[in-house]
Amino acid sequence: MDVNEKYFSNITSRERAIFEGAITMGALFHQFVGTPVNKDSKESLENAIKESLELQPAIEKVDAKIDLDRLNDTLSDFEYTSLSGDMLDIRIHTKVDNVKAIIRIEFIEELNYPLMYVEDIEEL
Amino acid sequence: MDVNEKYFSNITSRERAIFEGAITMGALFHQFVGTPVNKDSKESLENAIKESLELQPAIEKVDAKIDLDRLNDTLSDFEYTSLSGDMLDIRIHTKVDNVKAIIRIEFIEELNYPLMYVEDIEEL
Amino acid sequence: MDVNEKYFSNITSRERAIFEGAITMGALFHQFVGTPVNKDSKESLENAIKESLELQPAIEKVDAKIDLDRLNDTLSDFEYTSLSGDMLDIRIHTKVDNVKAIIRIEFIEELNYPLMYVEDIEEL
Amino acid sequence: MDVNEKYFSNITSRERAIFEGAITMGALFHQFVGTPVNKDSKESLENAIKESLELQPAIEKVDAKIDLDRLNDTLSDFEYTSLSGDMLDIRIHTKVDNVKAIIRIEFIEELNYPLMYVEDIEEL
User: Fold this and answer.
1) Radius of gyration in angstroms for the set of CA atoms belonging to chain B, rounded to a whole number
2) CA-to-CA distance for A19 and A28, rounded, in angstroms?
3) How is D37-76 classified by DSSP, letter by letter?
4) Which end of chain D is more exposed for a tag (fewer CB within 10 A), N or C?
């Protein structure tokens, strides 16, 4: 069976690039939010996020940054906090056929919450 | 600030309908997979999945079904199992402007894994 | 193989009652935190928490309450929020042989975080 | 307020060492199960598990190993799998006052599931 033909012929390459990145972004959010983190463990968590997400279909590259300043604001007396959506600054780069897209999550001050959106999308 | 204008003017209503449904589908997967479940608790879990996902932006309706037969196959001696992706049969209905989309996850025998795809999308 | 004899003979019934309740409490926290919730969906989420946790070994009963006031404080413009540890008020009742224990999580104002502790433990 | 006196004076140091390790073990399970993983990303995920868990109260050290053989068995056509409880081989070392405990999860062939238990506990 050709999965692409059977299940994805009703959407364009552009739409598929958005679809795969958005699935991965939604998954990331609920997979890692809540993990204990502080400035010493930040890097290992960023690496795990990056390396696990890059395994998924259509994902070319992932830039994962945990915002240290937001992290420090919420440190408890135990000197660590739980990773929250507000701390995430992540770009998921997808490629489907000749289309590349970047799905982004970042905290938007004006909205006071972390927004997921399509930062860039282009046909090569 | 107009969020839609600032962050979503680079994609069409059709693409946005796919984007929002895919975010929610990815999130669902990692939020609920792993939850203990058996035939008695199945309905309460389906309800919680449905009601929590319907809160999210652009989501009109969610049909959430946990496949009982797949569930019974994996029951441990303690008479329950952990919810896995294989058991999910879910449709997320999104609406953005005049576009309606259905994002689906279901186990595909031929692939031997649960596939997420755009089951239907149409302009009204 | 007698699992209890092989793996649990080094701890008392009292210790086992604490162990099983604590495993379940830790699991609960990371399973459900992050789920979208508002006042309309609160009850279905409480039910799903209760019914899924009660499936686990040694768990007699679970009282799951999501604190509505804490919930309302954090409602976003979209009229829902993500379940956080601060909102949880949960008692997990365990029974191992003749010992009953209650493992509790509740938000403690003085500490400014949700504390997990053994609320009560007694031999019958 | 003395948290230990107010909330933990009803249990012994031995019981507390078990309690804290079990909370962390339960949390770990639901935090990381489901993460995409293969042999290349295994190490970054083990590191993230280890470093995040070591932040929690009373946790001295964590040995986190993902079982590669179990992993290879379940690799999909996309060359990765989702982390499952069956692949976890983890020891959480706790210390409370003069008591040290090791909480373990490992897959037990005879039981056909991953068991959590107290591997060792001793007063110094």
Assistant:
1) 16
2) 14
3) E-TTTHHHHHHHHHHHHTTSTTEEEEEEEE-HHHHHHT--
4) C
What residues in B contact A14, CB-CB < 8 Å?
A: 15
Cβ within 8 Å, pair D54-A41: yes
Per-residue pLDDT tens listing for chain A (124 residues): 788 999 999 999 999 999 999 999 999 988 999 899 998 999 999 999 999 999 988 999 999 999 977 766 666 555 888 898 999 999 999 999 999 999 999 999 998 889 999 999 999 8
Spell out which chain A residues touch chain D, with contact meaning CB-CB distance below 8 angstroms: 31, 34-38, 40-41, 44-45, 47-57, 78-80
Q: Say which residues have a Cβ less than 8 Å from residue C99's Cβ, sequence separation at least 6.
A: C13, C14, C16, C17, C121, C122, C123, C124
The pTM is what?
A: 0.92
Can you tell me the distance from the alpha carbon of D65 to that of A43, in angstroms, rounded to the nearest whole number? 19
Q: Which residues of A touch D47 (CB under 8 A)?
A: 44, 47-48
| φ and ψ at residue B27, rounded to 5 degrees | -65, -45
Least Cα separation, residue D37 to chain C (angstroms): 19
Is residue D33 a contact partner of residue D107, using CB atoms and an 8 Å limit?
no
Q: Are A21 and A94 in contact (CB under 8 A)?
A: yes
What is the complex's ipTM, to 2 decimals? Answer: 0.93
Residue from the list B1, B7, B23 with its beta carbon closest to the beta carbon of A26: B23
Alpha-carbon distance of B86 to D34, in angstroms, equals 12
Distance CA D49, CA D70 (A): 18
Distance CA C36, CA C76 (A): 11
Q: What is the CATH number of the domain that holds D72?
A: 3.30.1300.20
Mutate to test the interface with B, among D79, D113, D115, D116 (most CBs of B within 10 A): D113
**d(Cα A1, Cα A8) in Å, to the nearest integer?**
12
Phi-psi sector, D93: left (phi>0), alpha (psi -120 to 50), beta: beta
Within 10 Å of residue B120's Cβ, how many Cβ atoms? 12
Number of domains in chain B: 1
Q: Report how far residue D82's alpha carbon sits from residue C119's, in angstroms, rounded to the nearest whole number.
A: 36
Question: Is there a contact between A55 and D81 (Cβ–Cβ < 8 Å)?
Answer: no
Q: From CA D20, how far away is CA C22, in angstroms rounded? A: 8
Determine the residue type at D98: N
* Residue the block writes with tokens 């770990």: D28
Residue C33, φ and ψ in degrees, nearest 5: -60, 135
Handedness of CA C28, C31, C36, C41 (dihedral sign): negative
Compute chain A's Rg from CA coordinates: 16
Distance CA C50, CA C55 (A): 9
Residue of A nearest to B5 (CA): A117
User: For tokens 């868990």, what's the residue?
Assistant: D53
Q: Indicate the burial class of C98 (C-beta count within 10 angstroms; 0-12, 13-18, 19 or more).
A: exposed
